[in-house]
Amino acid sequence: MTRPTLNALIVDDNPGDADLVEEHLTAGTGGHCHLLRADTLASGLRLLKDGDIDALLLDLSLPDATGLDAVRAARTVRPEAPIIVLTGLEDEAMALAALREGAQDYLIKGKLDGALLVRSLRYATERKRAELALRRAEERMWQSQKSDALGKISGGVVHEVNNLMTVVTGFGDLLMRTLEESDSRRRELLGEMLRAANRTAEITRQIVAFGRRESRPAVILDLNQIVVGLRPMLRSLLGSNIELKIVLCPQPLLIKADALHVEQAILSVASAVRDTLQEDSQLSVGTSCVRPHPTAKQGPPSGASGSFAVVTITGKPTQAGQQPIQESRTTFFSNRQPGLGFAGLQGFLKKLGGEVAQCKGPDQESIYNVFLPLVGEPTPPVLLKASSHGTIPGLPIGKETILLADDEHAVLMLLRHSLESCGYTVLGSITGAEALDLADRHDGTIHLLLTDTCMPEMNGAELAKRLLARRPLLKVIFTSGFTEHTVLQQGRLIDGALFLQKPFTLLGLARKVREALDGAPVQPDQDKAHASLSSGSASL
């Protein structure tokens, strides 16, 4: 096997010394060393900057630089290049100073031989490679730690935003039901406020969830609504120089999947296509319905039956010299990219019986098609109408007693008003200790504990365990601005309890309370899987 050639640069104004070094290197490497020469620091730095240099041999007595200034200048131009100082001065102090400035070795010209020079070059290059590898590893660790810290900070911010959105949307729901049908102007204004608040909460959820790989139950979704909901994030992803065009299928496209994974799939593909586009171009996201066809070059999975919903993401031709779309799949869906990654995307779609296919259009535009099998009809929504009788038609009601615990006063007030409007007797507390005291002083039955998971001094899980020890038939609902997955990882849930994600609607709250009250008692001592926890599917 042929050994690789070593490219070295010597900066020395003495031609005799340079000749001697070249002879030593040629003999010591068997001719596998290519030596470039420069007789001034300025010319040497130009070669160092522009050339493929593996090592620098540097004299400290040059016409345009002397001493350690030469080492500093070389380090500035090419920090990763190993430097070996060559000097006729045997000065231990200078040698130590040169090493502190970044030189890898300090050799005396009068004591040079081929073996010493080659060994020094080999050790210098290997040490430098090791230093660079260590530095890159440290940088990766630092980036990982920074990302982890940012994730924790963003999670806390999202928790607070969800608390605030719970208050806004909850009191908005309560206010809406007090308005008469004829008061169309106020209902319209309030409706716009609620839509904006719900959209804020949804965007916050999408941002935090985009980088996660949480497993959640599949539900029936309208693909058109998912695409419309992603419009703000797609605009942010594309920036101001790329136009976004969305074209939706006129009829609903019902699929059964985890909404987060579908969103991540669309955003990942859109990111891939975006990076192949030039400025002032267009990215189009369209939905349609297709059936498998045996002669189609691009279509649903082979052997599949039934109809498929399709998300088609199209970009205009790339700039000259950019990589073609066939190569972009590996690049853009690698592990360093956000979202599911190409392997994760294919795996997710395969479980659903779907597929992602890529091709080029007639004008060389980049096209990705994401196929998802269509399913049956969704559950019809319950329409809420204002009523003057204290309850909302179709809203679950009851006469049981509910103990509340939430350290956010506005959320506590919302829960109290909402549940009292459903007919329940409500006991409210700001802390876990206050909730225990209320329970001890209450002579009647407490049917349900509805508690936030994150409270000072005593969290929701600890409160629930203490109350269950005293009232074993108590039902429990945990609520949080964090996702159920996050709260579960923090160990702040107990088996048999239900979970309600903030922000929630009045209908979602009423249904979850009724589900808990009509269900089996909590049995925290049984070794049951946390997977039995009910997800807050009514949350927005």
What does this structure look like?
- With 540 residues, the protein is α/β, with parallel strands linked by helices.
- It has 3 domains: 6-112, Response regulator (Rossmann fold, 3-Layer(aba) Sandwich); 140-211 and 385-540, Response regulator (Rossmann fold, 3-Layer(aba) Sandwich); 219-382, Heat Shock Protein 90 (2-Layer Sandwich).
- 44% of the residues lie in helices and 19% in strands.
- The protein contains 16 helices and 19 strands.
- The protein has helices at residues 15-29, 41-50, 68-77, 92-100, 114-178, 184-209, 223-229, 231-238, 259-274, 325-332, 342-351, 409-421, 432-441, 460-470, 484-489, 506-518, and strands at 6-11, 33-38, 55-59, 61-62, 65-66, 83-87, 105-108, 219-222, 242-247, 254-257, 281-290, 308-315, 355-360, 366-373, 401-405, 425-429, 448-452, 475-480, 498-501.
- The strands form 5 sheets. A 5-stranded parallel β-sheet has the order 2-1-3-6-7, with helices on both faces. A 5-stranded mixed β-sheet has the order 9-11-12-14-13. A 5-stranded parallel β-sheet has the order 16-15-17-18-19, with helices on both faces.
- A hairpin with a 2-residue loop joins strand 4 (61-62) and strand 5 (65-66).
- Helix 1 (15-29) packs across helix 5.
- The longest helix is centred in the first third of the chain and has 65 residues, at 114-178.
